[in-house]
Amino acid sequence: MDQASSASFVAESGSPPVAAPNTSPSPPPTQSNLPDKPDEQPAQRRLGDYLVHLGACSPTQIETALSHAAQLLTTGVPKLVGQILLQMGFCDEEAIQGALFEQRKDRLRSTAIFQTLSDEQLTKVAEVAEEKRFGPSELVFLQDEAGDAFYLIISGQVSIFRTIERGREPEIARLGPGETLGEMALLTGEPRSASVRALKESTLLSISAASFDVLLREMPSLAGTFVPILAQRLRQTDVRLEQELDHGAALSDFLLEQTQAAAGPLLGASSPMKALRRQIENVAPTDQPVLISGPLGTEKAIVARHLHESSPRSDNHFLVFDAASLPALGEGQNHGAKRAKPQPEDEAEHDGLVVEMSQCSALFGHERGGHSFAKQRRLGCLEVADGGTLYIEHVERLHLTVQQQLLDFMKTGRFARLGDKLVRRAQVRIVAGTDVDLRQRVEDGTFLEEFHQLLATRHVRVPALSERKKDLSLFIAHYLKKHSALSRNRLAGLTQEAMNVLFAYDWPENLAELEETIRRGVHLAQGEHLGAEHIFVGISALEKRERVNLIRWEPLRKLMQSRFYPGLPQLFSVVGLFVIILVALLGPQQAERNVALPLVWAIWWPALVASWFVVARLWCSLCPMAAVGDVVSRLGGRRWKVPSFLRRYALPLSAAGFFTIMWAEQSTHMSTWPLATAVLLLSILSGAVVFGFLFDRRAWCRYACPLGGASAGFATAAPLELRANTNICKNECLSHACYTGNEEVAGCPMYQGAFSLQSNEYCILCGNCLKLCPHQSPRLNLRFPGAELWANRQPIVSIDFLIPVLLATQVSRLLVKGPLEYAWPLLADSAYLSTFVVMVAALAAVLASFGGVAWLLARRSEESPRLHFSRLTHVAVPLILAAEFAYHLMPFLLDSWKIVPMALAPFGIKFSESYLHVPPFAVKGLQVLVVLGGMAVSLFVLQRMLRLLQSHEVRRLRPLLRSSMLLLAVLYIVLYSF
Question: Is the pLDDT of residue 231 over 70?
């Protein structure tokens, strides 16, 4: 406000102005500033005009006073014009009060309510009116208060608003000079229906309730003038309130529900993040559309919010609309209409129409009755975000028709609600986000070329988390603090081991995956620090195809959820184990007379190997050794945490244990020695008991059991898998009971939890997660055999350790029982040493062969030998599993029948054996067929794996990989032919 206008304001209102520092003085007002024209409205006349009109002062004196007030204002000393007139002796106090009274009467006369009153009546009203001043945002009165006064606005502006549910305060109206408020409560006697606050410096005339009642009694005609005014005010208020309630509800819904993903800081000090901030600074000042691209899971919504907050629109709304989520149609803002089921031939067209209508309704709104689903009016994003920014996530998912309508709006600023012909205007900045190549979508015909050009003019790229691992510690600390505050686990930090796990992972799903991993870890942690055992990475949220959920079959679901499963089968297996051990220890030591040998080597081992291919690691849940370890743990176990070195070196230790068992079996001819068989079983049982006493859960099965290590690798080829619906786990589950357990059912014994399963390695199908999950998320899927081997995004490390060791033991076992049995006399003198030498040599040959092929593959591609080595081991799993089963076919077919005569012999019953004998050549033929079947599955896995590789060098890799599997199969066939 300049000084001249400030001085005029002083003369008008009689209130002191606020000095404006560092402003140059304006010329003093002249007589032209004080018109006394007949056509001037009385309410607009200044105090000086009334003094001149009453003859109390001359125009020259008024001009002198105004000039003096302006000069004082330049020195920072505001002074009322009336005071200056008194000091200069131009008039007296009585004259000024008379002028103010006349001014008040004219202001009352200018309103519709009082304009019909006579001068005498108007004088009575002016005598009881009191002038009140209110600063910006100062409340005049509150909703639900008793009506104590009637107000006439002299200057300034006030806002009328209501406080409704969830603290929202929709504005009903704004009133300015000459308008009245507060009369409704005085006339009806009810509490005030709304609140009023001053929007800026305002002056109001106030008439108290008692004085107002006196005026109405003395002037009955005054009450009649209020009726049409109040009726019109009510109509305007109802319309405005309905609009504001709709607008307020829409604001609440969008801001509370849709902008959650955009909350959070833009962290990072790495070079890619500095470049990102520069991009934001470059595009923020304009109002032009912006395209934000980045991999799945990056903070594109947060970038959009920071772009908005750095723009001139920062004081207005920022809304988020996700085009990938189908907005609800139907009543109100949040209620969806029931969706009619389309006929099969019309399903695609129907779904496309639903997407189009839903997106149009969400963006542009719809009018009540405009469509069958439109039971109530709905405001769209564009209407709610007027003046602000709208961020459209997954913009590529917009229907083509919606793209065209949005393009038209971006060009013209005009749109119409669905079912409404009224063209509306809005000023909204469009920011679009995508994690796909929009140029490719344009070429595919699913994205408009012009729409893409308009968006891509200003482009901001968000880098993947793998490109800015320097910032990883900042994100980890942020998410740890955030989710610690939201949960009961107030963690002090992470262990170094946990940090190493997080930094070793590449985070293909970026920050979304990192935050979910930290959130879950915070919930699972029990101490003051988040440990590596609470970190589950590499969890894909994608639902895979080609799966049949067997849990839908009610008898199977009831079986796995039964309290007798797997406890009852475990009981029988424990009894069987101790019977076998006792018979092997106390029974005859002649192989042909001890029934423990065929039970272990002709039935148990073949059944175990077959189970790996058919039912994955189901045997581990029924394992008698693990069951005994569980009992020891429950009765008096220490329940210590598994030490980090054991977790770190579990795979090589397990592989070494399996190598040792195979060496002991071959060098001692264990299958024909009952005592050695008993010692082997007792050794494995002792390990399970010791680990059960020391550690919690099944640490033996997870980290140390040699047979468990073999099971972990081979179970990946099984046609069964237990997986969780990770969308439910991430969005619905807060307890993670499948990992933590409850008072009745223990959590996952393998330290895993259904939510983290992406491989069969560590799932033993115990059914605990099915019993614990309140959302029925776990599913037992039937899939293609070997599907896990080609589809997993990350290599399965247990396979890389298992396959070379198992292949070496198989080759050495076949060599010792085949060609070397007669060609190497050293075997007869020192079986232990010679067997060890053969196995080590075989292991070295296997590693050299796989490593050499991996090196050749690496030379023909841009990928590392380590990755190709892993692919070789994965492809070989079905073939080596088939070869292992083929080896155990011999004892199964030739020796399993011996159980019957051995069991009957103590009772003096003789059993004829002739018709149970299987010719050895027939067994060898079956072995070759099994190996060929394994080779076929391995080649199928190879074909599917190569199909998934996004590389132009796939054709060059295929012949070498196929040749490697064929040569391995030929090696097996040759060895089995001896």
Answer: no
Helix (H) or strand (E) holding 149: strand 149-155
The owner of tokens 């039971």 is 375
Query: Is the pLDDT confidence value at 397 over 80?
Result: yes
pLDDT of 20 > 50? The answer is no
Concatenated DSSP letters of 701-712: IIII-HHHHHHH
pLDDT on residue 187: 67
Closest among 605, 657, 681 to 806, alpha carbons compared:
657
Which H or E run includes 581?
helix 567-586
Check if the beta carbon of residue 732 is closer than 8 Å to that of residue 775.
yes
504: nearest Cα among 491, 517, 493, 492 = 517
Question: What pLDDT, in 10s, does the model give residues 47-102?
Answer: 777 888 777 788 888 888 888 888 877 777 677 777 788 888 788 888 888 888 88
Is residue 757 packed enough to be buried (19+ CB in 10 Å), middle (13-18) or exposed (0-12)? buried
Contacts of 921 (CB under 8 A, 6+ apart): none
* Contact criterion met (CB below 8 Å) for 85 and 68: no
Q: How far apart are CA 844 and CA 832, in angstroms?
A: 18
pLDDT of residue 30: 32
Contact 364, 384 (CB under 8 A): no
Question: What is the pairing mode between strands 778-782 and 548-549?
Answer: antiparallel
Q: Which residues contact 445 (CB under 8 A, 6 or more apart)?
A: none
Residues 147, 209: Cα–Cα separation, whole Å = 7
Question: What residues have CB less than 8 Å from 217, skipping those under 6 apart?
Answer: none
Buried b (16+ CB within 10 A) or exposed e, 862-890: ebebeebbbbbbbbbbbbbbbbbbbbbbb
Mean pLDDT of all residues belonging to the chain: 81
Three-class SS of residue 686?
A: helix
Confirm if 783 and 755 have CB atoms less than 8 A apart: no
Cα(101)–Cα(125) distance, rounded to whole angstroms?
Answer: 11
Cis peptide before 566 (omega within 30 of 0): yes
DSSP string, 798-848: HHHHHHHHHHHHHHHHHHHHTTHHHH-THHHH-HHHHHHHHHHHHHHHHHH
By the 8 A CB rule, do 695 and 674 touch? no
DSSP notation for 150-194: EEEEEES-EEEE---GGG---EEEEE-TT-EESHHHHHH-SPPSS
The whole-number pLDDT of residue 6 equals 32
Q: Which residues contact 521 (CB under 8 A, 6 or more apart)?
A: 498, 530, 534, 535, 536
Q: Which residues contact 39 (CB under 8 A, 6 or more apart)?
A: none
Cα(841)–Cα(816) distance, rounded to whole angstroms?
13
Taking the C-alpha atoms of residue 380 and residue 246, their distance in angstroms, rounded to an integer, is 11
pLDDT above 70 (res 902): yes
The position carrying tokens 């919606």 is 402
Rounded to whole angstroms, how far apart are CA atoms 537 and 246?
A: 44
d(CA 666, CA 221): 119
Phi and psi based region of residue 141 (left: phi greater than 0; alpha: psi -120 to 50; beta: remaining): beta
In the predicted structure, residue 822 carries a pLDDT above the cut 60: no
Model pLDDT, residue 21:
32
- For every residue of 409-422, DSSP letters joined together read HHHHSEE--BT---
Greatest mean pLDDT among 316-320, 376-380, 673-677: 673-677
pLDDT given at position 829: 54
Tell which wins on pLDDT, 213 or 436. Answer: 436
Higher pLDDT, 120 or 917: 120
Report d(CA 702, CA 332) in Å as an integer. 53
Question: What are the angstrom distances between the C-alpha of 497 and each of 76, 250, 477, 519, 740?
Answer: 67, 47, 15, 18, 21
For the chain, counts of helices (H) and of strands (E): 42, 20
Predicted model pTM: 0.63
3-state secondary structure of 531: coil
